[in-house]
Amino acid sequence: xxxxxxxxxxxxxxxxxxxxxxxxxxxxxxxxxxxxxxxxxxxxxxxxxxxxxxxxxxxxxxxxxxxxxxxxxxxxxxxxxxxxxxxxxxxxxxxxxxxxxxxxxxxxxxxxxxxxxxxxxxxxxxxxxxxxxxxxxxxxxxxxxxxxxxx
Length: 151
Known about the structure:
Blueprint: E1 3-4, H1 6-11, E2 16-19, E3 23-25, H2 27-37, H3 42-45, H4 47-50, H5 62-67, H6 69-76, E4 79-80, E5 85-96, E6 104-119, E7 122-133, E8 141-150
Parallel strand pairs: 1-4
Antiparallel strand pairs: 2-6, 3-6, 5-8, 6-7, 7-8
């Protein structure tokens, strides 16, 4: 994660701080997620049956796309230079807008919405994240993601 001064992070509030690298979502990743979560709905794991749906093939679980935020955030989320630890604090809003077809690539675009002091040595950062699908106009999802930074 990029390291920055508190002043430069405060100056970035309300701005697009960047996009992550593209991440592949091949069928084997979808299958592994299905096994890990025990969500084996056919639209995720059965190409023949999924081909008969409006999706035209298998799609990633919405929660798989969401879970990739951690990897995406590592590329662009700003951390104060005094950071001792950063933890996921939760999500305020998530909307799944478009399916991620097997074989697609996704990336996260991050806007720093806010940074507040939650307590001594604790900063709560809120990011508006758009997960884009390569070559698609509509994003896979929108989320407000909160991270707690311990300094």
